[in-house]
Every structure is written in structure tokens, then in C-alpha cells.
Design goal:
single chain, alpha/beta, Cobalt-precorrin-4 Transmethylase, domain 1, Methyltransferase, Cobalt-precorrin-4 Transmethylase, Domain 2, five-stranded parallel beta sheet, five-stranded mixed beta sheet, 8 helices, 10 strands, 23% strand, elongated
């Protein structure tokens, strides 16, 4: 049976990749990726000359059937996301569901923004909830209410354009302590800690760029 490798790639720093991941990317017949331009930066850095093919959230059934046909031919494939571990807040899990009967699914673990921020949060992280990106329009209040009701720390992602709006909306529900990682592992990596209002004050005094991952915990009162 053909193999589909789910390969974790760096979330920023190109050195954050395992030897096993590099060997796998060198040995497969084709690499499936969200953005071929971004993936080629990594591949060129490590002199990997394997063909790439796009697979992303807008890929249609024709592309999935094409991938299944390759697997039926015995081709071994690798799936990567733009950064981090595929299948987490990206369409990798959908592809796995579609092809699981045609290939052996093999995880190649590695970088993840979730585990990176959890490891430095300082919060008890033996149990936590991951909720991905907040909805852009509808169901935002429900999303934030779920965070407010959680007994455990919650991790979410947010973009440059919505980080301030999201923190202001979240601050209306309850008092929280938060840890924010901006551009984790990259040159301008920044960690913010404290109450939401204090972190907002820091953010609004700076030029807000990059991707954000946030750990949220109900504020402890002594």
C-alpha cells in the first residue's frame, strides 16, 4: 500500500525541522503543499528537488481524485502545510479522511505553534482546549463565551488584522490572563504576558505585524 506522510515543517525558523522529516521529503514521489512558493523556500534551503503540487482548502474533488489515483499507482506522497503540523486548522484532516482507504497514513511529528506557546505559557497545561481561529462574523459571541466557560486554558490563533479586535471583544466576557506569541521562532518573535488590558496597551503602542497564537486563562483571584 502506498504511503501518505503527514510532515510537520518549521513555523518560522528553517532549522526547526527533524532529520526524519528531511529524509522523508527527499524520498517521496510528490509533496502536497498549501502554497508551492512557500514550501519551495524550505525545499531549496535543504536542496530537496522533489516535485510539488498544491493542495489547500479550496482544492476540489478533482484534485482529491488525482491524489487518490497517484496512491493507487503506488506513489508515496508527503503532505505539508505552510508552517507547523498539517491537519490542525488546515485542510489536511479532510484529505486524510478521503484517502485513508488508499494509503498508509504516517505522521512525521515536529513543530507546532500550539505546543510552542503551551510550553512557555507558565499556565498549568496538563489539560487545555484548542479552538483555532475565531469566526470572522457570525457566532463570534458564542465562540468567546465558550472560552469564558472553559475550566481549562484555551489556545487560539489570530491574524494581524484582527488581534486587537479579538482581545477587546474577549475582554468584555471575563477577566483573563493571557500569553501571546507573535511570529514564534522568527527574527521578530515577541512574547506578551499579563491581563488583556495590559497586553492591549503594549500592542497598540507597537507596529502590529505577523501571526499570533494566544493562551487564555481565567484570571485567578487571591
Amino acid at each position: 500500500m502506498a504511503k501518505l506522510y503527514i510532515v510537520a515543517t518549521p513555523i518560522g525558523n528553517l532549522e526547526d525541522i527533524t532529520f526524519r522529516a528531511l529524509r522523508t521529503l527527499k524520498e517521496v514521489d510528490l509533496i502536497l503543499c498549501e502554497d508551492t512558493r512557500k514550501t519551495k523556500i524550505l525545499l531549496n534551503h535543504y536542496q530537496i528537488n522533489i516535485p510539488v503540487e498544491s493542495y489547500h482548502q479550496h482544492s476540489n474533488i478533482k484534485k482529491i481524485n488525482y491524489i487518490i489515483d497517484l496512491l493507487k499507482q503506488g506513489k508515496n506522497l508527503a503532505l505539508v502545510s505552510d508552517s507547523g503540523t498539517p491537519g490542525i486548522s488546515d485542510p489536511g484532516n479532510k484529505l486524510i479522511e478521503e484517502v485513508k482507504n488508499f494509503a498508509e497514513i504516517i505522521p512525521i511529528p515536529g513543530p507546532s505553534a500550539i505546543t510552542a506557546i503551551a510550553s512557555i505559557s507558565g499556565f498549568p497545561m496538563d489539560k487545555f482546549v484548542f479552538m483555532g481561529f475565531p469566526p470572522h462574523k457570525t457566532k463570534r459571541n458564542k465562540f468567546f463565551q465558550e472560552i469564558a466557560d472553559s475550566k481549562h486554558p484555551v489556545i487560539i490563533y489570530e491574524s494581524t488584522h484582527r488581534i486587537v479586535k479579538t482581545l477587546k471583544e474577549l475582554n468584555k466576557f471575563k477577566e483573563f490572563d493571557i500569553v501571546i506569541g507573535r511570529e514564534l521562532t522568527k527574527k521578530f518573535e515577541t512574547i506578551y504576558r499579563g491581563e488583556i488590558k495590559d497586553v492591549l496597551n503594549q500592542l497598540e503602542k507597537s507596529i502590529i505585524k505577523g501571526e499570533f497564537v494566544i493562551v487564555i486563562r481565567q484570571r485567578r483571584t487571591s
